[in-house]
Design brief:
alpha/beta, 7-stranded parallel β-sheet, binds NADP nicotinamide-adenine-dinucleotide phosphate, 248 residues, 7 strands, Rossmann fold
Length: 248
């Protein structure tokens, strides 16, 4: 029996990077996967085909996680198409890094909207369905930066720390209905994006990590499978650092 057999998951921001790894790993574990993207339509459709070939139901939705009405529409469509929503992974996120001295109001607001308000939008959109089902697992993607802070990332750190407070509060509000809410705080995860960085700089980051390597999207996805599955049935309100020991 696969760990996520028969469960339906929504994964936001899965056209590339960590979200794509989560969608693929969920499908390998038997989940039906509805996932979103912002603009990478070709990549999203390719992933939809790849997941479907694994024998699960999969569909890509263009949906702006920062938009309250679109989140509601997405949840309605997924419920109609898939019949249930058992797992929500709020993964979509962006950065607009700058020192506080130089950061614009627009770049602060945008990062809060896409990274933090999106978690509110999507959680609210699936809440009624999960309440009716009397079960659900919500997984929110924070960051080591949300736990520790980082120079040049005040907007990003605030959004990622906000996710932790939001998620703990949801765990307290919805625990009695068997709806769990947990956070994953990834460290340095190597994706197509980091492949473009200077190799010497990246190697110095790897050397500073106790496990001596950057993480992969699959490292994050495996932690998501655990939190999404009934293996973690008694775990809620927690933040799991998946960072090779970075915060130790
Ligand atoms: P990424 O490669 O930049 O991918 C971001 C994904 O989010 C893409 O699928 C993108 O879609 C989607 N997206 C962006 N804005 C969106 C919006 N408004 N609505 C819906 N989807 C949207 O990012 P990543 O590195 O995989 O990171 C994924 C999550 O992990 C983020 O929350 C990030 O903060 C967090 N994280 C990453 C790291 C790391 O080292 N990579 C570390 C800690 C935490 P399009 O392709 O259409 O643009």
């Amino acid at each position: 029996m696969k760990l996520l057999e028969g469960k339906t998951a929504i994964v936001t921001g899965a056209s590339r990077g960590i979200g794509k790894g989560i969608a693929q790993t969920f499908a390998e574990h038997g989940a039906n996967v509805a996932f979103t993207y912002s603009s990478s339509e070709a990549a999203a459709l390719e992933l939809e085909g790849e997941l479907t070939a694994l024998g699960v139901k999969a569909k890509a939705y263009k949906s702006d996680a920062a938009n309250f009405a679109q989140a509601q529409e997405l949840a309605d469509e997924v419920l109609k198409e898939f019949g249930s929503i058992d797992i929500l992974v709020n993964n979509a996120g962006i950065t607009k890094d700058n020192l506080l001295m130089r950061i614009s109001e627009e770049d602060f607001d945008k990062v809060i909207e896409v990274n933090l308000k999106s978690v509110f939008n999507m959680t609210k959109a699936v809440q009624r369905t999960m309440l009716k089902q009397r079960k659900g697992s919500i997984i929110n993607m924070s960051s080591v930066v949300g736990v520790k802070g980082n120079a040049g990332q005040t907007n990003y750190a605030a959004s990622k720390a906000g996710i932790i407070g939001f998620s703990k509060s949801v765990a307290l509000e919805l625990g009695s209905r068997n709806i769990r809410s947990n956070v994953i705080a990834p460290g340095f995860i190597e994706t197509e994006m980091t492949a473009k960085l200077d190799e010497k700089t990246v190697q110095s980051w790897r050397d500073a990590i106790p496990l001596k390597r950057g993480g992969s999207p699959v490292d994050i996805a495996n932690a998501c499978v655990f939190l999404a599955s009934d293996m973690s049935a008694y775990i809620t309100g927690q933040t799991l650092n998946v960072d090779g020991g970075m915060l130790t």
